[in-house]
Amino acid sequence: MPRVPHPVPQVARIPGAIYSPFDDVGLPGSNHAFPLHVGDTWLTPFEGARMEDLRAADYPELNRYTDTRGIPELVDAVVEKVRARNCLACERESVLVTGGATAGLAAAIGALVAPGEEVLLLAPFWPLIRGIVRTFRAWPVELPFYDRVDGPEAAVEAVRERITPRTVALYISTPSNPTGRVMSESRLSAIAEFARDEGLWIISDEVYEDLIYRGKHVSIARFAPESTVTAFSFSKAFGMAGNRTGYLTGPSEVVSQIRKVSTHTVYCAPAAGQVAGLRALRNGGSWLEKARSLYREAGEDAAGVLGLSPPEGSTFLFLNVESSLDERGMEGLLQDCYEEGVLVAPGASGGEAYRNWIRLCYTACSPKETAEAVRRLARRVATPAQTSRPESA
Fold first, then answer.
1. Which of 42, 198, 361, 367 is the most buried (most CB within 10 A)?
2. pTM of the model as a whole
3. CATH number 2.60.40.10 given to 56-283
4. Which residues of 241-279 are buried (b: 16+ CB within 10 A; e: fewer)?
């Protein structure tokens, strides 16, 4: 029978407003908007990597398609970076430049997960990954994890309890969006060993790898290189979210399949964004160092005001606001925050178990604006009683 006017059921389940129900609503009165609901930065890219710095005379084919793998110079630079900084074996065939990490992760899901199969999402998770899994007619299975599991053994047991014969992949994020946690090497190693034994793909989201304030970043692919696809991005580290350029690495035979999905959806990443990314890898170190320092200061200030432990990485704080909810529930609290001119993301966007939580990005506005926004937010939420968390990630 014809389906019109109904969409595919799994797509219909994907919410339209992911980060805030007030995205498309004008602000009340004269309140200034503090958009802490989306992960972005107030900083502009370093001089030389802004769009106005890219000259057609220097790059005469900026208006054209690129190779679907990516601009050769950028692919070569990624190979060098992944070998040196992520300690992974990498060749040109192991790299795919993508339309942001979002398009890369979507292509990976499309290539590795069949309709009806399950992807285990360690929660709370990046809000778009659940919808991506559903878009490819697979099933996201949510596992409350980052705030509830302590130690390598407990991590493995938590994963073991949730896998089924239909589970084919595990999605993990470190540094974590939205918790700000950095996964320890021992935990990553244990999870990787278990996933290998169970024949699971690991899809590792490492777009915040450069934004570490405590501990160190370790790529889980070090422990299961044959079954891990890793997503990186220029968006977060170099203030280039609008450029829509990221990259994936993984086993060459798998990347070749992912490339098919990428080619048939976005074809290639924007040429200008790729050039900017190449310049970032070559010359963006001092800009990144300054940005990381500013982000760390903003995160520590916001955490202190809200009674949270300082973030270990990423650009987010995740706050349990259960004690601040009234009979209106989360919708009412978001409305109150909106009336203060502050937009925050509901925790349920990162997992159904987090309906009493909110996520805020402390880099979306300038440090002065963020400080003001957080203090407005503090007038609406009580200091959470459950802010303590396991010491070992």
1. 361
2. 0.92
3. no
4. bebbbbbbbbbeebbebbbebbeeebebbbbbbbbbbbb
